[in-house]
Design brief:
It contains 16 helices and 15 strands. The protein is an alpha/beta fold and 403 residues long. It has a five-stranded mixed beta sheet, sandwiched between helices. A five-stranded mixed beta sheet has the order 3-2-4-5-15, with helices on both faces. Strands 7-6-8-10-9 form a five-stranded parallel beta sheet, with helices on both faces. Bound molecules: iron/sulfur cluster (SF4).
């Protein structure tokens, strides 16, 4: 078993990393990033060789020129060289709401991934324009639920049950705008990792079954917390051809209360029971806290689980001297370690790869979109079609109405 990574101040970012695909979470010039070949290549060559210091200087200048015309949002999983510019940091929904409440900012630069920028565009005022610094910053979980696959599954479910009136579709925030619209059109709702319990309760008040996508783990963990047994949860394999009922027997579907899409987060699915056992052996007093996108057995073995906001609050409120092992993305864990020098904070996973798609928002892209705005050019704008926006808003508003 590899040694657990312990992040201790003052500089938790200097730890040796063991990830195959990255040399660290410190910023290298774009041309030296191993994965640059698969990132957005349209960025002008003048940005390719700039180091972190020069990029910081240029972004700062653009920021000062644009003033309150621009708001920069930074998701918790962004690197420090991006977060330092964020007017607000948080989870995807909180950030989209924050920008919508600042109408003086005509440009919303969303340092996160594609579905987050779409959500910001759905909630933004008509004059606000949303920009994603790197268009290749997607989310592998969101990509596991495509609009045609979900609609085909819905049709199959309708055929099997003789209608879909008793099935409530619930999409996690981490999904394409078109799927939020699908939920809006079909009596469904959106959830976040903070409110999934309330959302499932809402859904069960309206139907016999919930069709939950794209994250099976959040759906399973939330269902379990509400008393739904594992054999009342059916797992829909979207990789199978249409007509195969997602690989389910009719009987499994008939007794199901939740039909879970077989999607997952590649970052959170890495956390394991073995890591928790190793952490407890090394730090017997440690509290283990994980994100609900982790596997069921991991969540069951943890002391607490919750959203990124919950994890940040848990750490901030823990007494000095606490030892806390965390199962979530490394940039957030590193930041929490740095900001809580009186506590020992460590990541459960010794191989600390960042979320590879969040990582695509390299400061060179932020410099490019900001300097373009200074010249009056909008690059990498995210535009959700009006009709999609309309229906997606319905599903988001149902969620917002839950107190
Ligand atoms: S951490 Fe997971 S769910 Fe979040 S953006 Fe990365 S891949 Fe998607």
């Amino acid at each position: 078993m590899a040694e657990l990574l312990t992040l201790t101040p003052p500089n938790p970012f200097d730890v040796a990393l063991q990830c195959e695909t990255d040399t660290g979470i410190a910023t290298l010039p774009l041309s030296q990033e191993l994965s640059f070949g698969s990132w957005q290549r349209g960025i002008p060559a003048e940005y390719w060789e700039l180091d972190a210091e020069e990029l910081t200087r240029r972004i700062r200048m653009a920021r000062a020129t644009l003033g309150s015309r621009v708001v920069i949002l930074g998701h918790h999983y962004q690197r420090e060289d991006i977060i330092q510019f964020a007017d607000e940091r948080g989870d995807s929904f909180a950030l989209a709401q924050y920008a919508a409440e600042r109408p003086e900012s005509e440009y919303i630069v969303f340092c996160g991934v594609h579905f987050m920028a779409e959500a910001a565009d759905i909630l933004a005022a008509p004059h606000q324009r949303v920009i994603l610094p790197n268009l290749e910053a997607g989310c592998s979980m969101a990509d596991m639920a495509s609009d045609p696959d979900v609609r085909a599954a819905w049709a199959e479910l309708g055929e099997h049950f003789g209608g879909t009136e008793d099935i409530i579709p619930v999409t996690y925030m981490n999904s394409a705008a078109s799927l939020k619209a699908f939920c809006g059109e079909n009596g469904g709702i959106v959830c976040t990792s903070s409110n999934a319990t309330k959302v499932l309760q809402w859904a069960f008040e309206r139907g016999k079954r919930v069709f939950f996508f794209p994250d099976q783990h959040l759906g399973r963990n939330t269902g379990h917390a509400l008393g739904v047994t594992l054999d009342q949860m059916a797992l829909w394999n979207w990789r199978l051809p249409n007509g195969r009922l997602g690989g389910l027997e009719g009987e499994a579907l008939d007794r199901s209360r939740i039909i879970l899409w077989q999607g997952h987060c590649s970052v959170h699915q890495r956390f394991s029971l073995t890591q928790i056992e190793a952490a407890r052996a090394k730090y017997p007093t440690a509290k283990i806290i994980v994100h609900p996108e982790c596997r069921y057995d991991v969540v069951q073995a943890a002391d607490a689980n919750g959203s990124t906001a919950f994890i940040a609050k848990y750490v901030a409120e823990a007494p000095a001297g606490s030892v806390i092992g965390i199962g979530t993305e490394i940039n957030l864990v590193s930041r929490l370690a740095h900001e809580n020098p009186d506590k020992t904070i460590f990541c459960l996973d010794p191989v600390v790869c960042p979320c590879s798609t969040m990582y695509r928002v390299h400061p060179a892209y932020l410099a490019w979109v900001m300097e373009s705005l200074v010249r009056g050019e909008v690059v990498n704008e995210i535009n959700v079609p009006d009709e999609t926006k309309l229906h997606a808003r319905v599903a988001l508003e149902r969620m917002l109405a839950l107190k």
